[in-house]
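Students often ask why we bother encoding 3D structure as a string. The short answer is that it lets us treat folding as translation between two languages. Here is a chain of 127 residues written in the first language.
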Amino acid sequence: MDPANLFPEGYVASRVTGITVDVAIGMHPWEKHPARPNRLSVDVEMFVPVGAVQASAAGIVDYDPVRDLVRGWAGRPHVEFLESLADELLAEAFRDPRVAAARLRITKTQIFSEATGAGIEVFRRRP
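And here it is in the second language, the structure alphabet:
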């Protein structure tokens, strides 16, 4: 989905990319060892119609809450699926009522020796 199709007048994408965090996640037996969490790389984009953002502290979309949420995943109890984390992340992105759509990628960066990563990408419009 191209966000330009959603916003004919334009949009502002507030993004944070390449957040890394070690998380106990996965359904494979080797992923369930508590001493060996998976390294995740997380990218988040929050799309806002251009008229809803202003160049001031009060007028921007703050990506710090998204970053803080991802960093908080370290040390949490084991999670089976990346989709569970994606749901949490989307809920945080949509806390700002101006965010009309969000895209995120969560990648396990060390899961397979023959790949640089495996993961999911989600694009969702505000419900």
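Translate back mentally: The chain has one domain: 3-125. Keep this in mind for the problem set.
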